[in-house]
Amino acid sequence: MAFEDMWAALLPVGRDREHGGYDRFAWTPPELECRDWFLDEARGRGFTVERDANGNLFAWWLPDNGVREDAVVTGSHLDSVPGGGAFDGPLGVVSAFAAVDLLRERGVRPGRPIGIAAFAEEEGARFGVACLGSRLLAGAIDPARARGLTDRDGVSVADALAGDGLDPGRIGPDEDLLGRIGCYVELHVEQGRALTVPVGAASSIVPHGRWRFDFAGEGNHAGTTLLADRRDPMLAFARMVLAARDAAERNGTVATVGKVHVTPGGVNAIPSSVAAWLDSRGPVDDAVRRTVEEVHRAAREDGVEVSVAEESYTEVVDFDTALRDRMVEALGGVPVLPTGAGHDAGILASRVPTAMLFVRNPTGVSHAPSEYAEPDDCLAGVEALATVLKDLARG
Ligand code: HGY
Ligand code: MN
Ligand code: MN
């Protein structure tokens, strides 16, 4: 099935009719539908399908020579942020199938296995930790902590895995699977405005993390409670949001507060508590750490208790230069650029040689419905990925 057909098949899955964004949260119906799509595409090509204990999917194009290790793996993720764009994640997975199709049409027979991966819960939109599936595979998160993560309705990762027929007791690092992977190359839509030609390569991912702030005050009546008697957590939250921008400007980082839960959430009730999440990223670790500390210091209000918990943090990722340079050479030279976006490739980079290809995004917008890549640029990305896979999977 050509790129366009696969793209058209996925496009409507989990798309909100009103705002056009996607809500493909891990192990919810739209994302399960995307998983089924992946399995159909893999089986339709006669690939061996593997679902690891962590819920990551792999489709294997195995060579005739019986070699089963040193695989070249490509792919990305199928889940989205709330109201996300169509390209972040799926472009890498659809392009992987399309690139392998090109190689097969051209009579290429790989000397090493080529794997296509779809990692679970990359956005962390449901359970709060980004790249959960690849972190578990790579041993970058404690399995017990992961099992206990819950979504807004109190459903745990363990429940979600069990609901999908997996044994939550088996999640965690998979040394056998990692041992079979020789390298990982992820194609991804570029998420800023830096790429001005169809295809580029990644040099690094900046340090980035997310922190949960909890503000505990006292719920009370909006009309009968004197200002002097209030312990309003919303005021501490408001200071947190404004402090995030100030601290980011001071420290040369970026900081975002995009998610907040107010309890109980009544128009005429002073909240009893507020939970809010800070996402901060920047060129160096200590600038990010300073940003979070300054926000923590500023997010205050008399009578309101403030607590902060780090939910995930990824130090700077410098992709494998030999792999990157080999990829750039095979492509005849493409721009090499850093990114402020996290990726499964950034997590796997700690275990296997990893590289990334970017496809131009003319809007420069991501994590929103207007995220976009031109069809010609998507096809250029497929050609580039096919070239890289052919080069890397040579016997
Ligand atoms: O948050 C990120 O940068 C990625 O999209 N998970
Ligand atoms: Mn994303
Ligand atoms: Mn992504």
Write a structural description.
The protein is α/β, with parallel strands linked by helices. Helix content is 33%, strand content 23%. It has twelve helices and 15 strands. It has helices at 3-10, 29-44, 90-105, 132-138, 143-148, 157-163, 175-180, 233-251, 285-298, 321-330, 344-348, 375-392, and strands at residues 48-51, 57-61, 71-77, 114-119, 181-189, 199-205, 208-216, 220-221, 254-263, 269-270, 273-281, 305-314, 317-318, 336-339, 354-359. The strands form three sheets. Strands 1, 2, 3, 4, 5, 6, 13, 14 and 15 form a nine-stranded mixed beta sheet that branches. A four-stranded antiparallel beta sheet has the order 9-11-7-12. Strands 8-10 form a two-stranded antiparallel ribbon. Helix 3 (90-105) links the parallel strand 3 (71-77) and strand 4. Helix 3 crosses helix 12. The longest helix has 19 residues, at 233-251. The radius of gyration is 22 Å and the shape is elongated. The model has no long low-confidence stretch (mean pLDDT 97). The chain binds (2S)-amino(hydroxy)ethanoic acid and manganese (II) ion (MN) (2 copies). (2S)-amino(hydroxy)ethanoic acid is lined by residues 122-123, 130, 341-342. One manganese (II) ion binds at residues 77, 88-89, 122, 188, 343.
In terms of per-residue confidence, which ranges show pLDDT below 50 for 5 or more consecutive residues? none
Pattern of helices and strands: HHEEEHEHHHHEEEEHEEEHEEHEHEH
What is the number of beta strands?
15
Structural class: alpha/beta
- State mean pLDDT (0 to 100 scale): 97
Rg, nearest Å = 22 Å
- What does the largest sheet look like? 9 strands, mixed
Gross morphology is elongated
- In helices, the fraction of residues equals 25-40%
Number of helices: 12
* Ligand identities: (2S)-amino(hydroxy)ethanoic acid, manganese (II) ion
Alpha carbon gap, first and last residue: 26 Å
Beta-strand residue fraction: 15-25%
